[in-house]
Amino acid sequence: MKEPLSSYRELGVWRDGMALVKACYLITRPFPKDELFGLTSQIRRSAVSVPANIAEGYGRGSRKDYVRHLMIAQGSLKELETHLIIAAEVDCAPRTDIDPALTRCDQLGRALGALIRALRAKDD
Q1: Could you tell me which residues come within 8 angstroms of residue 66 by beta carbon, excluding any fewer than 6 positions away?
Q2: Which of 33, 93, 123, 124 is packed most tightly, with the most Cβ within 10 A?
Q3: SS3 (DSSP) at 20
C-alpha cells in the first residue's frame, strides 16, 4: 500500500508545473521590453497559476475543492499554451524555444487530467 503524500510538493504534477514556470521565465527573459506588461506578464502569470492552483487545491479540505482547483490549473495551462503560440506567431520567441514548452504543457495537461479522473473515481 502506498503511503499518503505529506505535501503537495511531492506531487509530480506540482513539480512538473514548477519546472514549466522556470522554463517560461527563461523563455520570456529575452522578449522585447515593450512586451513586459503584455505577453511576458501573461505567460508568466498563467504559468505560475498552474502549480499555485495545484497547491491550493491540495490544501483545501475536500476532494471536490481539490478537483475544482486542478481544473483551474488545467485552464491556466491552456491559457499558457495560447500565449506561447502567440509569442511564436508575433516573433517574440523562436519556435525552437516555444515548442519544448508546448510539449511540457501537453504532458502536464495529460497528467492533470489523469489525476482529476482518479480523484473523481474515488467519489463513485
Answers
A1: 57, 58, 60, 119
A2: 93
A3: helix
